[in-house]
Amino acid sequence: MTQAIRPRRALELSRRSFGVLAAASVLAACSRGPQTASPNAPLRVLAINHVWTQAISRYLPELEERIGRRVTMRMLTADQLTSSFNVKLNASATDIDVMTIRPLQDQMLFARNGWIADLTDRVEGDADYRWTDFQDAPRERSVTAGAAVSVPVVTERPALYYRKDLLEDFGGAPATLDDMLDIALELQRRTEGFFGFVGRGQRSGAVTQWSSFLYSFGGDFTVDGRSGIGSPEAVAAYQYYGRLLHDAGPPGATNMSLEQAMPIFAQGKAAMYVDADAIYSNFLDDSISTVTDTVGFAPFPAGQAGSVPHNIPSWSLAVNEFSLLRDDSWEFVRWASSPEMVARLQSEGIPGARQSVWDDPATLASFPADLAEAMRVNAANGVGHDRPEVMQVGRARDIVGRPLVSGIVGEDVASVAADADAEFNDFLVRDNRQQEF
């Protein structure tokens, strides 16, 4: 009898022991505390492959000496960067410390998901850092839900690229949108393959450059939380841009983004072109441009509401919320966006976000003089977004771009804009629910 009972008791004791060990393991796991980085661990930067990143990488030994830690930088294309962020940040990965993000494309989603650190106390609490020295428009884009979660390092505005030799008889670059349309219509010889104007016309891809036309007509993507693309000002901007490309632009414009539009101007096949000022060097490169001696640069022309271009941070720095090197990560951001570094890089032709640097003529010497003046004027007049400020940016651009395409192909813009306006309002209701933090 006793021998028959012993195995059962042994099994019960075994089960109890296993339960105690399991509970102990859970308690041990919970008591380990936060992870810490090895003293020999490098500071890891995941960044866009961009002229800014390439330039800052040359100076990394300065930061390594300051923080006493090796810095590694991995550069990816925009698509590769997006894929990497989606995988790593969803997994709360700690092998990224600092990252370059697109504040108008990524920041709201990243902040909502808790992927990027709140830098408010650091940027505002460091008097030597001079947070208020950043231009208003880019600085405001660094804030989401009341928290500063990024720091702008590269800024961008539109530029009017034009042929000085062709516009000389018109008194130079047009100062108004009305003049630009008149000149484009007069100079176009579409049947001969020469165009008065070229610009982006692809449904989604054109929205960012069209934004400056929208603002200069007095409109915006949203007004008081509702769609603004059905307003009279927006409809007028759609109609204007549509006529510019329909009557004076190249065939197939609705399939053109930057990669297709830029070569048309670079090869001397258009009189005027509006696009990002960051691409100016393409027109000064003899290997790809035939207009190196004739290209001119001018501020964005004035519409009914004046000249109101965008002035945006195209790339910003953020700190991974899951980084084990948060203090050193901030030191990287602080160093890379300091007044001294911004001045150094802008002197090399990379436009920064600090007003003090733009006020220093020495930092603009690397740009053509007329481009530097155009950039300065556009920055002073600029709006800090070039697309709808929403969570689902891609879907919003697709909706907003529909009336733009209708104008280019000669359709009735007003009816398409009214339909898109209703669709965008429905979208904003859903998107606003997603934005709740």
TrEMBL record:
<dbReference type="InterPro" id="IPR050490">
    <property type="entry name" value="Bact_solute-bd_prot1"/>
</dbReference>
<feature type="signal peptide">
    <location>
        <begin position="1"/>
        <end position="28"/>
    </location>
</feature>
<protein>
    <submittedName>
        <fullName>Extracellular solute-binding protein</fullName>
    </submittedName>
</protein>
<keyword id="KW-0732">Signal</keyword>
<dbReference type="Pfam" id="PF01547">
    <property type="entry name" value="SBP_bac_1"/>
</dbReference>
<dbReference type="InterPro" id="IPR006059">
    <property type="entry name" value="SBP"/>
</dbReference>
